[in-house]
Each structure stands twice: as C-alpha cells, then as structure tokens.
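Holo model, aspartic acid. Inputs:
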Amino acid sequence: MKKLIALAVTAAVAGGAFAQAFPSKPITIVVPFAAGGPTDTVARQLAEAMRKPLGDATIVVENAAGAGGTIGATKVARAAPDGHTLLVWHIGMAATAGLYRKLQYKPLEDFEYLGMINDVPMTLLGSPKLPANTYRDFENYIRANGGKLNLAHAGLGSASHLCGLMWQSAVKLDKSMTTIAYRGTAPAMNDLIGGQVDVMCDQTTNTTSQIEAGRVKAFAVTTAKRLDDHKLLKDYPSLQEMGLKNFNLTIWHGLYAPKGTPPEVTKKINDALQVALKDPEFIKKQSALGAVVVRDNRVTPAGHKAFVADQITKLKTVIDAAGQYAD
Ligand code: ASP
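Output:
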C-alpha cells in the first residue's frame, strides 16, 4: 500500500514538473494539407505569433496531406498527448464527420479543443481561360458547359470540396462538373492558373494575392454579404446578392491537441493562443488576406468545442441534402 501511495505521489510530482517544463522540445503543428495553401498560411502565421508567448519555443509546421485532411487529423489524434504535437484544421473538422462514415478518430472525443483562430471567407474562382468576367456570365457558362468542366478541390471533406458541392447544389446544375482532388489548394491553384482545371472555390487566405495579380478570375464571395472592408474583395458580389438565397459559407480554423494532453499544458497553449490572437501583427497579416481573427468565446476550449459540435450537426444536414459521401 505504501509503495502504491509513493508511486502515486511520484506520478503527480512528475506531472507537475512536466507541465512546468512544457515545451521541452520543438512543437510540431500538423497541417493536413499541402504547403503554401490557405491552412498552411494560417498555421505558419499563428506559429510565429505563438512562439514568444510559449517562451521562444521552436514551432515547426508539418504538412501531412491527404484524404481531405483526415490523414493529418488521424496522425494528431494518435500522437503522444504531451502538447508537442498540435493540429491546425479548418471546417473540415466538422464537415468530415458528416462526409466520412468511417473515420479513424472521433472528432469530439479524440482531441483536446484548444481554441478557434479565425473566420475566413471563400471566393469562387475561374481559370484565366474562362470566357466569363462577371458572376452572371460565369453561372450561365457553367450551366451550358458544366459537364465538360473540372472543379478542383483539396480532397473529399475539404473546404473547397464543400463549397463546390454547396454551390453546384444551390444553382441546380443539370450536369455537375468533374471534380479533381488535390492534396491541398496550393497545388490546385497552380493548375487553375495554368488552365488545367476550370473552377475552384478557396479561402481568401490563398486567393487574394492571385486575384490581385490577375492570375485567376474571381466571381463572388461565399459570405452572406460582400466584404466591404477589404480593399480588393469589396468589388466582388456575395452569392446571396447574386440570387443564391441563404448561401453563406465561412471557413473557420481551430487548434487541437491529442486527447489526454495534461490540463496544465493545454492551459499554457490556450494562454499563448489568446496572446497571439491579440497580436497586432498577426491581426494585420490575417486581415490583409480577408481573414477575421476570432474574439468571441470560441477562443476558449469549451466555446470552441460547443461551436464545432453545432457545426457538425449543421453541416451534416447540408451533406445529407447533397447526398454525397466520401466512403
Ligand atoms: N483550402 C483547402 C481546402 O479546400 C485546404 C488547404 O489547402 O489549405 O480545404
């Protein structure tokens, strides 16, 4: 009995000492998409902003792409729960719960929810080779040629896939476009610019500079209203404005750790996240890309989890209505 108590005391002390030591080695943020894309951009900017509040920690971003983000998420769900492996993921955390009937992890049970990062609009884009220049012309062109055109996305369950699905179902195309899956929208964007694919919907964190440089054609934003505060994106109509009633899609990103990460450690990470979300440099960089840094109670672990749980329910309705699944 004595021995047992002694063991318990040692374990408790070790737990406390461990938390104090955190981080004791480089922290890896897993991004479940290719490097250079929108999720990657959010993760890298966040890593920079969280480095100092975590005591000048080394934070590396690792791209573990594939299967709409679920490969990277599985990797983090199975990683050692010590705070040194984290996940930055977007709305896919909720969408894949409806799209994949067999996931390798349980979204609400296998992660510690650390807090939301931002909300990001999407833009509906076409290759520079498309003849249309306005949303109206674009919609008419797709109606007439949909069956011959390709829609790029970042895998089943990705934001770009979800957006493409929702848009095609909202405009009630007779013939849907052929979808082409990439490991992220960074490589998909290269093919859109080159005209190998025709259409893509993607976060503004990846599209703003390409639109500004005239490398792709932008037709609309997916938020309920147009983005009046953004110097470039304010010129594009919202899909609601163009007659797609109730169309409203905003992509959010959150930060996660494997289930079982000690509370002292998750608190340190959430504290650092809160500092990062108030960092003027981070806010400025995000807002230049059309993203809005979260300020409401979704920055708390409980608020974050409640929001994702609600999104899982809402997105499942959308996915079930479209009747398309990933497996
Ligand atoms: N924007 C992508 C998506 O459609 C993912 C990425 O490459 O970050 O989900």
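The pocket of aspartic acid is lined by residues 33-34, 37-40, 92, 153-154, 158-160, 184-186, 202-203 (CB under 6 Å). Residues 301-322 form the longest helix (22 residues).
Archived with the compound record.
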